[in-house]
Amino acid sequence: DSSPKSITILAPCFNEEEALPSFLEHVEGILAALPEINWSILLVDDGSSDRTWQVIGEMAKKHPHLRGLSLSRNFGHQTALTAGIDHLTTDAVIMLDCDLQHPPELIPLFIEKWRAGAKIVSAVRQETEQVGWFKEVTSRGFYGLIGKISDTPITPNVADFCLLDRTAYIALRQMREQHRFVRGMIASLGFQREFIPFVAKPRVSGASKYSFRKMFRMARHAITSFSSAPLRLGIFPGIAAMIFGMLYGTYILLRYMIVGDLIPGWASLMVVVLTLGGFQLLGLGVIGEYIGNIYEQTKSRPLYFLKGTIGDLDSNSSSEESA
After folding, report:
1. Checking DSSP bridges between strand 5-13 and strand 92-95, what pairing results, if any?
2. Residues in contact with 211: Cβ distance below 8 Å, sequence separation at least 6, in sequence order
3. Does the pTM of the predicted model rise above 0.85?
4. Alpha-carbon distance 162 to 196, whole Å?
5. Do residues 106 and 123 touch, judged by C-beta distance below 8 A?
6. pLDDT tens digits for 83-101?
7. H helices present in 88-234, as ranges
8. pLDDT tens-digit profile of 232-241?
9. Is 234:162 a contact under the CB 8 Å cutoff?
10. Are 6 and 39 in contact (CB under 8 A)?
């Protein structure tokens, strides 16, 4: 199809007032060289405490392609992406971070693979420049774990940096989980998908807003949302403990019948009690995590609340709607 296509560049922002001008300059420079594409940029302010929203408003006065959404508080990166997706009307969306760690130079390649028929084009991180060893190790460990236990195959090191065709993002829009892991949800869609390798660049300014606590929370939500394996963690230790208990009990009974004495075993008893107690508490914690997810989901609260908008969010409609 050679007809003009419309694309939205979607970027969540949290305290990124310093990075936004550079991000806008880079992205607009690349999009301006694509005359066959009608494009717009949608920035979602995720409850920033700095001047991010004011900066978006100031830039929108000079850049007619710029749109903005402001969430009432900090709902998190994944929910900010969801808010942007909920307000799309274009033929496709490209999601990326505004700190320029996701290189905008790959946008033409995303579009090329999309025009060739892919409904989803995802970027896969090969390495990250100037990243700490701890973050690298934990990232590898997370993808190694979720790859083994997930009910949905998730490509290791796949990023939220991706292109979604209108068909794909409308399908994604129907998923209203309270605890969101967008890259896993995208993997579950099943549409034709292509991958692009990339090297994550250092942040253009400031420090990462993704603390260890936030990364751990997202990993926890990802595991409990895409795998039921943790609920079965206690099965095999439970069976092993039961068999051990039966064998040990048989041994004590036989010793008493043959030798005539009982084995003094306070130490061994405490080891068994503490080990089994630890497994039981772990199992209760895992069950509690799933019950908590069910509780949050059954309340059916909105995923986010909007505080304000900038620009006409419907100005770049899809080519199907425009036809």
Report:
1. parallel
2. none
3. no
4. 9
5. yes
6. 999 999 999 999 999 999 9
7. 107-115, 133-149, 166-173, 182-187, 212-226
8. 777 777 777 7
9. no
10. yes
